[in-house]
Structures are given as structure tokens and as C-alpha cells.
């Protein structure tokens, strides 16, 4: 049994967990119900519950991609977080992901705030050389620290960069001057802002299909326009449409995706738009791999 997890719910179509017979090279869901560094709209600690519940609204057959969800994946439950202590929580997430990797299972993380990705990316960057993080977000998340904290929803990709990951940031439309200067100062951060996606999706897809490295996909739900997914920690106008996120996921389905997260769903209402969109992103990915 995985340490530091409990089972509040299961994602639809997940297989029963039998630790003596875990299929190799499969995917495993963990939830991270944590939002202690949230700086605007709180509530993402409830994301894992509402996203799992929303998953039961989908058919096994994915009509958009003309595929059936026959990928083997498990739902291992939620990580036991340390409320108020982001660094300790990230360490628990890292240890849990390492246990998944020992089982030869690739992680799918449901948040919870984006800081959860720090632990996942640390584990994967230790395992894989030249890890590339494809980061869908309204924000850079490249602050060195945020309100004095190095472990925060606003510093996720700075930590990932320090771990040695290459970054591809998609949907960006909010940033600080310091973050922009940092991007200019380094060579391994590729940016496609929101208008780049709206006008030149073909260029985004071309770039993604030519990545020759293990890929980690990180989806902050505020990458969507708030008209589509309003219940997020930091909603920002001008976001992506569902079809554009589908196109990104489809482009990556041909690549070596070693993990994925969908974070920042901040609602306590079952069936809320954001939760449904988050569940669909996971559902689409599993329908394609």
C-alpha cells in the first residue's frame, strides 16, 4: 500500500487496486487536497473530490477522438497533506510519486493548488534526463519566492527550472516584470501566449510534436477562459477554449508523457463547470494514450 494516502473516491473507469498485480507502464491518480498558499480564491483543496465526481458524467467512448477509454489506470486516493506547510506537503507528494515510479506507474495528480506539482516534478526530474514540462497556465509561476515563501503556487515553475527541467509555457497572459526578465535570461523556456494559441495553434502543435524528451504535462485550470472554467484560484480573462486544450493534449498523446497534473479547481459544488472541464482533460488524455 502506498504510504501517506487515503481513498475518498475513485475516478471513473479506474481499475481496482491490487498491489500484487499492478500493470507496468500504467497510470496512477493521486489527489492533493491542499491550498494553504492560495493568494486569491481559496477552495482548491476540494478539487480532487469534485473532479473525481465529475468524471462520472462521461461515456467510455470519446466521441471527439473516436477512441474508447481502455488505458489501464488506477486511483490510489489522496495524499495526506500537512495543512499550512507547503514544503512538507511537497515532500510527501515527492515520496508518493517515487513509490508510484517504483511500481512502474506514471503519476496523474489532481489538485489542489499548483504547488503540488513541485513534488511530482522533483521526483520525475530525478528519474528522467532532460525532462520537459509542458505548462498550460495563465501565469508564469516563475517567481523565485512569493510573499517570502519558496514553496508556493506562484513559484512552481521556478523550482522545476532549478530541478533542470525545460519549460514550454502555453496560454500565458499574466506575469511580473521580474519573471519576464528571468525568461529572457535563460535559454530553455519556450512561450506561447494566449494570442499565439488563438491565432497559431498549428505552430504550437508543431513545436510539441517535435519535442524529443520525456514530457510532463501540467494543466492549471486558469489556462481556460474564466467564462468556461470560473472556479479557479486566479481567474484571468482571455484564456483558452476547450477545443484548444484538446488539441494540445492530442499533440502530446504521440509523445513520451511520463506524468500529468490538473490543478487549481477551486469549488465545493458538484457538477460545477471547472470541475467538469478538469475531469474532461484527464479523461481526454487517458482516451488518447
Briefly, what is this?
The protein has 289 residues and is α/β, with parallel strands linked by helices. The chain has one domain: 3-Layer(aba) Sandwich (Arginase, Chain A), CATH 3.40.800.10.
Calculate Rg over CA atoms. 17 Å
- The helix-and-strand class reads alpha/beta
CATH topology descriptor: Arginase, Chain A
* Main sheet record: 9 strands, mixed
The strand count comes to 11
Tally of structural domains: 1
Architecture (CATH level 2) name? 3-Layer(aba) Sandwich
Q: Beta-strand percentage?
A: 15-25%
Overall 3D shape: globular
Q: What order do the helices and strands follow? A: EEHEEEHEHEHEHEHHEHEH
Strand numbers in spatial order across the main sheet:
1-5-2-6-11-10-7-8-9
CATH class: Alpha Beta
Binned, the helix content reads 25-40%
- Uncertain stretches of 5 or more adjacent residues: none
What would the average pLDDT be, to the nearest integer? 92
Topology of this protein?
Blueprint: E1 5-6, E2 26-32, H1 47-54, E3 61-62, E4 67-68, E5 73-79, H2 86-102, E6 105-111, H3 116-127, E7 132-136, H4 156-162, E8 166-172, H5 177-185, E9 189-193, H6 194-199, H7 201-209, E10 215-220, H8 242-252, E11 257-263, H9 273-288
Parallel strand pairs: 2-5, 2-6, 6-11, 7-8, 7-10, 8-9, 10-11
Antiparallel strand pairs: 1-5, 3-4
Helix pairs in contact: 1-9, 2-3, 3-4, 7-8, 8-9
